[in-house]
Design goal:
Number of domains: 1
Mean pLDDT: 78
Largest sheet: 2 strands, antiparallel
Helix content: 10-25%
Amino acid sequence: IYGPVQDVRIPYQQKRMFGFVTFVYPETVKIILAKGNPHYVCDARVLVKPYKEKGKIAEKYRTTLL
């Protein structure tokens, strides 16, 4: 409905259910995020957030205590 999908990953965790969808075109993500939440997949409510790599976020906000 939004654009071609490159990859889908759904890691298994007992307490949290989430997945990652990689679209072929980055513009697709901008369109989806602009629509806000919630979205529905097979009548199930899902919240959409951009993916942020932990290592890159940690690098950006690294603090040293002296």
